[in-house]
Design a protein that fits this description.
homodimer, 405 residues, alpha/beta, 7-stranded mixed beta sheet, 3-stranded antiparallel beta sheet, 16 helices, 13 strands, 38% helix
Chain lengths: 405, 405
C-alpha cells in the first residue's frame, strides 16, 4: 500500500503550480485525473520539446497522471468534466485549477453537484489579476540582489521557484482540507495567489523586517552567502566549487581542511573580529575568500574535494545540467529516487519519483507522462460508469477523444 | 475552527527547511512546539539581525510556534524532549528534525515510546552527508544558466528555493502520513534529502530529458523566458518592467498594448516564423525585444503600466525589497495576508500568515516569533503534566529554562 492509496484528485490546470501539486500527490500514490481540451491545454507544447514536438516539460509535470481529453467548449463536455470533478467517494471530490473559478468552474455550481467538494484555486494575484512566476519574482526584490555586485540591471531566476513552492503549498493545503473534511464533513474552496506565496516568503525570511526595523534595503552580494561565510572558488582544472560555513562546525572544518588556521587567526586580530560569530565571517567575507582562493587555485577539483571531504567540510561542485546528468552519481539509477522510464513518444529517460521516502509504505514507481486522452475511456467507464454505447456516442460527437487521433 | 485545529507537531530543527515546514503548519492552526538547547539552536543568531542582535530570520521562520528550551546535552533534558515528541494524543506524535536521527533521536528508540510516531527526517544527501541549499544548487545546473549570456562564472540564487520547497514537501509528506495513520494506525519515518528535492525538480521540468533525449545542455538566456517570449525593459524614468507572453492570449495582449502588430507581422514574414507558436517567439526573442525596447524607453513606468493594463497584458515592475515594502499595496495591510504584529524584542512589523485562504474555516492570525524558552513551563505542565514542584527542580538543575535569563 502506498501512502496516498485510494485518494482521487481531478485537475484542470496548466503550466507549473497546479500540475506540480498533483504530480507530487500522484508520486505518493494518489489517482490524479488531468482533464484537458481535445487539442491539449495551454502548456501542451511548452519547451523543451523533442525533435518530434513532444513537450518534455509537459511529460515531466504530468507523469503518473491519467489524461482525459474533452471538448471543454461544448456544454456536454463541460458537464462531463463537472461530473468527474464531483464524482462520489469519500476519497474523491478533490479538485485543483488555476483557471478562473467562474462559469462552469464556479465553486458554488460545483458544490451543487457535491456539497463537500474540496477545490483549490490557484490565482496570479489575490484580486484575480494575472501574474506569472516571472512577473511576481521581479516585484519581490530578489532579481535586484542576484548577480555581480555593482551591476544595476536585474537578474531573473531561471528556476520557477515561486510556481514550485505554490504547487507544493497547494498540495499541503488540500491534504489539510481533506483531513478537516474527514473529521468534520465540510468541503471548501482554497484560494492561493502566487504573489502571496512570494510575499509571505519575503516576510518569513525577515526581509520585510529588515526594511521596516533596520531601515536597510538588502545589497547585492554576488555569490557570497548573506550573514555567514560561503563563496565559490575556481580550481586548477577550471572547475568551480561552492563552500559553505554557515554553522560554527562547518567553519571549523573548512578552516582545517584548507589549512588556513594561522592566517585566519591573524585576520581576526587585525580586524578585531571573532569568526566563531557567523556575522563576523560575513563582515570579513572578502579577506577570508582571498585566503581560500590560492588553495583552490593550486588544486584540481578532485584534490580539493578529497581534502574537504577528509574533514567533512560542506561544499558542492558546480555542474551544468549535462554534467549533472552524465557525471553525478546522485543523478543516476544508483539513487533510488530514479527509475529508467520509457515514454512512447520520447524514449527512455531517467525519471524521478517522489523525493519523500515513506519507510513503512510501498514506494510508488516513477510515473510516465500520459499521452493526451490516453485514459479518457477508462476514466469515463470506471468513474462515471458510462456504458460503452454512451461512450461511443461521445466519441462520435467529438465531445471526447482517446489517444489515437 | 482553523483548518488544522488540534494537530500537534514537535520540532528539533534549524535553518530553513524544517522550521519552514512547521511554521507553515502553525499558520494553518497546528500547535507547533520547537525544542531548542538552552542557548538557542544553530540558527538562533542568523542574519538579518536587529541592532540589539535579535534575529529577524529566526523570528520569521518560527512565528506562531511555542518555544521550549532544554539542556539537550543532559540525559534528563533529552528524556524530556523525547517525552514531548512522543506524547499521547491521536492528533500528536508528529515530529520533524533535520539533525542526524541517531542517539536520542533514533527513530527506533522514539518508536519504543510511541509506536505510531510520525517522524520526518530532513537530510542533506540521501546517504546522510551534509548539503545545504547553496551546495545543492551549484550541482543542479541553474547557476550556470542564470545571469548575462556570455558570462562563464556561475550566478548563485539568493532565494533559498530548495530549502523552502523541501520544507513544504515535508509538510505535505507529514499530512499524507497522518492521513495514512488515521486510516491504518501505522506510524513511520519519512526521509527527505535536500539534494533529492532539487534532482526531482530537474527531472520534473524536463531538463534531464533535454540532456538525454535532445543531447542539449541548456544555454544561458539572461532574462529571457525560455521557450516563449518574456524580457525586462527599461522605462523613461529608469524603472524596469518584466513582460511575459507565455500563452497565446498573453502574446496578443502584449502586441496590442504596445502597438507593434505591424512590425511583428513584418518580422514573421522576414523570418518565416509564426509567433502564435511559443517556440517561434523564443527563437525571435532578440528582434521582438528590439521592437519593444523603444516603446518602453518612451514611457514612464506608470504610463507603460496603464497601457499594458488596458489590454490586460501580463507584466510586473522590478522592485527592491524596500520598494516592495514601501510602495506595493500587495505588501501592506490592504492585503489580508498580512497583519501588523508586535514582537517585544523587534517592534511592530508587517507579518504574513498562511498564503492559503480556506474560505470555510477560521483564518489564523499571523503569529509572532517566540522568545526562546517562552513556553517551556506551559508546555511541560500541559503536555507532560508535570507538577509545579517537578518543574521547579528542572529549573534549579538548569535542565530547562524560561524566557527570562
Amino acid at each position: 500500500m502506498t501512502i496516498l492509496s485510494g485518494l482521487r484528485i481531478t485537475e484542470c490546470a496548466a503550466f507549473i503550480a497546479g500540475p506540480f501539486a498533483t504530480m507530487s500527490l500522484a508520486a505518493l500514490g494518489a489517482e490524479v485525473i488531468r482533464i484537458d481540451p481535445l487539442e491539449g491545454g495551454l502548456d501542451y507544447h511548452r519547451w523543451p520539446v523533442t525533435a518530434g514536438g513532444t513537450s518534455l516539460y509537459w511529460a515531466g509535470l504530468n507523469k503518473g497522471k491519467k489524461s482525459v481529453a474533452v471538448d471543454l467548449r461544448a456544454p456536454e463536455g463541460r458537464e462531463l468534466a463537472q461530473a468527474l470533478i464531483t464524482a462520489r467517494g469519500e476519497d474523491a471530490g478533490i479538485f485543483i485549477t488555476n483557471f478562473p473559478a467562474t462559469g462552469w468552474l464556479d465553486f458554488e455550481k460545483l458544490k451543487d453537484l457535491r456539497s463537500d467538494l474540496l477545490m483549490a484555486n490557484i490565482l496570479g494575484n489575490r484580486d484575480g489579476s494575472t501574474a506569472l512566476d516571472y512577473t511576481v519574482n521581479c516585484a519581490v526584490g530578489f532579481p535586484l540582489v542576484t548577480g555581480t555586485p555593482g551591476e544595476t540591471a536585474p537578474t531573473n531566476h531561471v528556476l520557477p521557484a515561486w510556481d514550485l513552492l505554490c504547487g507544493m503549498t497547494a498540495a499541503t493545503g488540500l491534504l489539510a482540507a481533506e483531513r478537516h473534511r474527514r473529521k468534520h464533513g465540510a468541503g471548501q474552496l482554497l484560494k492561493i495567489a502566487l504573489s502571496d506565496i512570494a510575499l509571505a516568503v519575503v516576510g518569513d525570511l525577515g526581509l520585510i523586517a529588515e526594511v521596516q526595523i533596520n531601515g536597510e534595503d538588502r545589497a547585492r552580494h554576488g555569490n557570497h552567502i548573506f550573514g555567514a561565510f560561503g563563496h565559490d572558488f575556481e580550481t586548477a582544472d577550471n572547475r568551480r566549487i561552492m563552500v559553505a560555513a554557515v554553522s560554527l562546525g562547518q567553519w571549523k572544518t573548512l578552516v582545517k581542511a584548507t589549512g588556513i588556521a594561522e592566517s585566519i587567526s591573524q585576520l581576526e586580530q587585525s580586524t578585531s573580529l571573532d569568526f566563531t560569530r557567523e556575522g563576523d565571517r560575513f563582515t570579513a567575507r572578502e579577506p577570508i575568500a582571498a585566503l581560500l582562493k590560492p588553495w583552490f587555485a593550486a588544486r584540481t577539483a578532485a584534490q580539493a574535494a578529497a581534502a574537504l571531504d577528509s574533514e567533512k567540510a560542506c561544499w558542492g561542485l558546480y555542474q551544468s545540467f549535462a554534467q549533472l546528468v552524465n557525471e553525478d552519481p546522485r543523478c543516476s539509477l544508483a539513487n533510488p529516487l530514479f527509475a529508467q522510464v520509457h515514454h512512447p513518444k520520447i524514449g527512455a529517460t531517467l525519471t524521478p519519483g517522489s523525493p519523500i521516502d515513506f519507510t513503512s509504505c510501498d514506494p510508488v514507481a516513477p510515473g510516465i507522462g500520459p499521452i493526451l486522452g490516453q485514459h479518457t475511456d477508462e476514466v469515463l467507464l470506471d468513474v462515471l460508469k458510462l456504458s460503452s454505447a454512451q461512450l461511443g456516442i461521445l466519441h462520435d460527437k467529438r465531445i471526447v477523444a482517446g489517444a489515437e487521433r
